[in-house]
Design a protein that fits this description.
The protein has 242 residues and is of the alpha+beta class. It has helices at residues 73-85, 96-125, 137-149, 217-220, and strands spanning 8-19, 33-43, 46-59, 64-66, 91-94, 156-161, 166-176, 181-186, 212-216, 224-226, 232-240. A six-stranded antiparallel beta sheet has the order 9-8-7-6-11-10. Strands 1, 2, 3, 4 and 5 form a five-stranded antiparallel beta sheet that branches.
Amino acid sequence: MITIVRINKNHLFLKTIPVPDIQCPLCKARGKMEMTFYQLQLEAGWVRDTKKISAAASCNGCQQDVPVVRWDKELDSFYKAEKKQITVKTSFKTGKFGKFLIWLNILFFGGVFLLFAGLFIYHRIAPKQKAGTGISREEQVRQSGQFAAGPRTGDLVLVYLFNDHKQALFRIADINTAAGVIKAIVSDKSIDVPANAGEVPVAEADFKPGHETSFSLADYKNLRITAPDNSRVGNVQMIYRK
């Protein structure tokens, strides 16, 4: 939370001393000047007395204040020497408004911290959301690798086809282990990647005769789809087993 507060600068009187035998930069009179020292105080719902010391010079001869930009080396050296001799007390006090701002910021940033901490804990510790068969997408990906290693008839295989640049769903119809070939029927429906088998939007009628194809069993186990002529057809994205 960003709160814009106006900071007032106050100059607390410390002392006034004569400036002996130094010429006034304005009227050239010598021995007529005096210098007043101030301590800087900041105020904005709280009050802080700082270590910063400033000074103002004036001349009793010409009755004028001498701007800092008109100070000569002698006057500036006198100011620096006297400034070193002054000891000021610093302090910090909080008023009612200052306390209100402090508590307001503590509550705001504390709430932000708790919000992000809660989100972090939720995403790191809370169980993954499950649907359908109760298997998360991460678990389905892991199981797809296991299903590919031990294929069964009836498995549903979601494949990305390189030539058509689209996804297609195959159902394994036969596995010829001796020949190293899997026969499958492709669905004529386009689907997305559901999280589990219970969400695959297909029916028996979607796998029509005449849409049969064959691919290598060995490559299938490595999640690759290769045609009988050894041409790479696509990659297995997900395998569903009902």
